[in-house]
Amino acid sequence: MSRSHVLVFDHGTTSIRACIMDASGTIIARNQRSFEQIYPQPGWVEHNPTELWDITLPVARAALQDAGLSWENLAVAGLTNQRETVILWDSQTGQPIYNAIVWQCRRTAAFCEELKRQGHGPLIQEKTGLVIDAYFSASKIRWLLQNVPQAQHLLANNRLLFGTVDTYILWKLSGGQCHVTDVTNASRTMVFNIHQRNWDTELLNLFEIPAAILPRVVGSSESIGIIDPKFTNGVTVPLAGIVGDQQAALHGQKCWLPGTAKSTYGTGAFLVMNTGQTPVHSTQGLLTTLATEAHGKPIRRLM
After folding, report:
1. HSE of 130 in the Cβ direction (CA atoms, 13 Å)?
2. Are 190 and 130 in contact (CB under 8 A)?
3. May I ask the CATH class of domain 5-302?
4. Distance in angstroms (rounded) separating the CA atoms of residues 65 and 71
5. Which candidate, 21, 38, 39, places its Cα nearest to that of 30?
6. Contact in structure between 6 and 13 (CB atoms under 8 Å)
7. What is the dihedral angle through the alpha carbons of 189, 190, 195, 197, rounded to the nearest 10 degrees?
8. Which of 20, 148, 214, 284 is the most buried (most CB within 10 A)?
9. Alpha-carbon gap, residue 21 to 28, rounded angstroms
């Protein structure tokens, strides 16, 4: 049986979509389902991680059925995702300790303003390419660690894991075998050094985030494992391909040369430019983040 098709998950901010592509890159089937937006109080935005997971396999199976295909036809599966959104979960049970705190959430804005007043802005921008803001993952992780009692109990027992949506869903898809993220998502956490391409100890200490809960960082096109065969009727389907949504759009819109740019519109509007191998640090509040070329070598991009 031919294994020439690709399954792609798109975990967005308001819905999850599965697409089946043939060998030419043409989408031949897709299935999409929305999920609940949770607003506990003004400025707070959450998602239920269990709901995100519960939708994932059904949309894939529906897309395969619409395409007249089965798991045996898939050469590989990959994932793109809403970035910055934070999930902490128990590595033994797989249960989240709290709702996902979404990139839009402003609950940590006051803490971020305090960091600015303390003068940490230049250090964070130099290491991460980002400005201090509640948008990014670091202050959200800190909030969960300090405000959810179960977090410290699991941490003390070496059972606590952190991930953005890509990490959590891939961990679930792999049956708990893959605790990974890619450089595009890591570079949006505000604790990842985009020059050295690793988790930054100084920034982890600043945000009081233990390194033990962090995922392994891989390239966006690396093979990372397989979907647990219990989900695929015993078929081995490789997992290879993790890219944050805006970096994926940059690549998908063929912005492969320095100076090319794209603008996409969804839950937010994002103008992104490929700046090549040399990092460009904005003096006007724009962000510098890692992206990925077709051959997998990191490039910087400005948005």
Report:
1. 25
2. yes
3. alpha beta
4. 10
5. 21
6. no
7. -30
8. 20
9. 6
Terminal CA-CA length for the chain: 44
What does pTM read for this prediction? 0.91
Give the amino acid at 14.
Answer: T
pLDDT digits (tens, 9 = 90+) for 32-80: 999 999 999 999 999 999 999 999 999 999 999 999 999 999 999 999 9
- Taking the C-alpha atoms of residue 145 and residue 269, their distance in angstroms, rounded to an integer, is 31
Question: Quick check: 218 and 256 in contact, CB under 8 A?
Answer: no
Nearest alpha-carbon partner for 227 in 190, 178, 281: 178
Question: pLDDT tens digits for 114-173?
Answer: 999 999 999 999 999 999 999 999 999 999 999 999 999 999 999 999 999 999 999 999
Copy the structure tokens of residue 281. 């640090």
Which residues does 64 contact at the CB level (< 8 Å), separation at least 6?
Answer: 7, 20, 29, 70, 71, 73
Domain parsing of the chain, residue ranges: 5-302
Q: Which of 237, 253, 298, 278 is nearest to 5 (CA)?
A: 237
User: For residues 143 and 228, what is the distance between their CA atoms, to the nearest angstrom?
Assistant: 32
| Strand intervals (E) in the chain | 5-11, 15-21, 27-34, 46-47, 74-81, 87-90, 100-101, 160-163, 180-182, 192-193, 198-199, 216-218, 223-226, 238-244, 261-265, 269-276, 288-292, 298-302
Q: For residues 248 and 244, give the distance between their C-alpha atoms in angstroms, rounded to a whole number.
A: 6
Find all residues with CB under 8 Å of 12, minimum gap 6, and list them.
81, 82, 245, 266, 267
